[in-house]
Write a structure and sequence with these properties.
single chain; about 260 residues; alpha+beta; 8 strands; about 15% strand
């Protein structure tokens, strides 16, 4: 097994080899600072047999927006648990801490001063992630709502970058019980990206197009199919992730998985 945490320089090198195209980097460059593209679990995970939701079998895709829906077969979402005493209060506390923490970052320049880096600023995106490498490393070890892995911004006609939320991450090895301790799974769903087939050098063009074969939007979902195409298969890449939009009023919108929808007011 390759190390679970690799240096930023190595991440960039591996990312360039695996992605090979601007199109895929647009969609997932936002999480490169926290990525473990060199990381693969020793046992291939069959998500369909585990508690949770393989996006291919999800009958509620419409609430997640086209960006999420396009990743069917490459994403696993935690199931909603039964609400326990104190869950709502714990979730509200996280939202309150997030909101208080990011107030200063309504001026995105202050985020840059505090070590956040814009992922792919020159490329048009529905949502811009400002990543913090130090916070990403710390999030692997423990949860601190005041230290989000990423700040989420959206461009508007009036503002270059308008703050709308945060992204928290957790180690790819974290259990769902551990995720539940961070933000209750009765309130919100964490997700991780799965079944990634990295294209060989002579097929990088197949990351994009009308019917992509490789990557997060690709038709390849299994190790066998990936190897048959000469690709490199990763059962799980990146960290566990969750987006929080503290300026929303309803919990459903605060923990929305629809990144295409504007969460700015």
């Amino acid at each position: 097994m390759l190390p679970a945490i690799i240096s930023y320089a190595m991440t960039r090198k591996i990312s360039a080899r695996l992605y090979g195209t601007v199109a895929l980097t647009v969609a997932f460059g936002a999480v490169l600072l926290a990525a473990r593209l060199g990381y693969a679990r020793q046992q291939d995970q069959q998500k369909g047999s585990m508690p949770g939701m393989d996006m291919r079998d999800n009958d509620d895709m419409s609430s997640m927006g086209p960006s999420m829906a396009a990743m069917a077969g490459h994403m696993y979402v935690t199931p909603l648990r039964s609400k326990q005493p104190g869950d709502e209060e714990r979730a509200k506390a996280v939202v309150a801490q997030a909101k208080a923490t990011i107030e200063r970052y309504k001026d995105y320049r202050k985020a840059l001063l505090d070590g956040y880096v814009i992922a792919n600023p020159k490329l048009k995106q529905p949502q811009y992630h400002f990543m913090n490498k130090a916070n990403a490393r710390e999030a692997d070890l423990h949860f601190d709502p005041t230290k989000p892995t990423a700040l989420l911004y959206r461009r508007t006609p009036m503002q270059e970058y308008k703050l709308e939320g945060v992204m928290y991450t957790a180690s790819p090895d974290a259990t769902e019980d551990e995720l539940n301790e961070r933000i209750p799974l009765s309130i919100a769903r964490w997700h991780e990206h799965t079944n990634f087939c990295g294209a060989p050098a002579n097929k990088v063009s197949e990351y994009h197009g009308k019917n992509p074969k490789f990557g997060m939007f690709g038709s390849i979902h299994t190790k066998e199919a990936c190897q048959a195409e000469g690709g490199t298969f990763f059962p799980v890449i990146f960290s566990w992730m969750i987006h929080v939009f503290p300026y929303e009023n309803d919990f459903k919108d605060v923990f929305s998985m629809n990144d295409d929808m504007a969460h700015v007011h």
